[in-house]
Amino acid sequence: MTQTFDAIVIGAGQAGPSLAGRLTAAGMQVALIERHLFGGTCVNTGCMPTKTLVASAYAAHLARRGAEYGIASEGPIGIDMQRVKARADTVSTNARTNVEKWLRGMDGLTVIKGHARFKGPDVVQVGESLLTAPRIFINVGGRANVPDMPGVDTVDYLTNTSILKLDTVPRHLIVIGGSYIGLEFAQMYRRFGAEVTVVEMAPRLIAREDEDVSEAVREILTDEGITVRPSAMCIGFKPHADGVAVDVDCTSGAPMVVGSHVLLAVGRRPNTDDLGLDQAGVAVDARGYIAVDDTLATNVAGIWALGDCNGRGAFTHTAYNDYEIAAANLLDGDSRRVSERLLGYALYIDPPLGRVGLTETEALKSGRKILVSKRPMTRVGRAIERGETKGFIKIVADADSKQILGAAVLGVTGDEVIHGILNMMNARAAYPTLQWAVPVHPTVSELIPTLLGDLQPVN
Question: Which of 45, 43, 48, 21 is nearest to 32 (CA)?
Answer without folding.
Answer: 21
